[in-house]
Amino acid sequence: MITPIAQTLSPAAFDQLVANARSIEEDSYGPKVYQFENGDYLKLFRRKRLLSSALLTPYSVRFWRNAVRLKELGIPTITPLQLFKLPKAGWTAVRYQALAGTTLKSVYERDRQLSDTLLEQLVALFRTLHRKGIYFRSMHLGNIVLTEDEQLGLIDIADLTFQSRALSRNKASRNLAHFERYLKHNGLMAEFPFEKLCTRVLAR
Predict the structure, then answer these.
(1) Are strands 144-147 and 152-154 parallel, antiparallel or unpaired?
(2) Which tens digits make up the pLDDT trace of 187-196?
């Protein structure tokens, strides 16, 4: 897979890049995601440890490669545009076009339920990912988008890996367990049809 060379930004060049952008997500280190006036996004990645795999393959590159691979497999996702190496050591970024649509988190918070149609689409998405050997630890309602043409796609995809074969039943169950922890953490477990989701996803 060909990945473009990251453009190295000086402090002044970075400041100029985000001068008219709006910070929409931050943590204790500062802005994590910017939104530009034209709707594009800039996602910043920090290498968390001095010695890690991110030293050879930065998270921004993984994000880019995951997007390209998902598109090749027919799964809707973001469109990467440009890679950057930022002035601060260990920091990189990727500019991308968002996946147009509404997150399932927003849909669920609005309706307080998941329609039978959406549940079947979610089951199909899990099964497709598992069949194609895709393990997405961060798969949760906030990272799944109902697109404008009524498909389900994925965002925030840096934490995603590809295997050469379908996921084992054990690994598929672990993937669902991450999804369950998200529901519990956000107080959604009592209302969400999780058992029905699990039964249908794991059915052979």
Answers:
(1) antiparallel
(2) 888 889 999 9
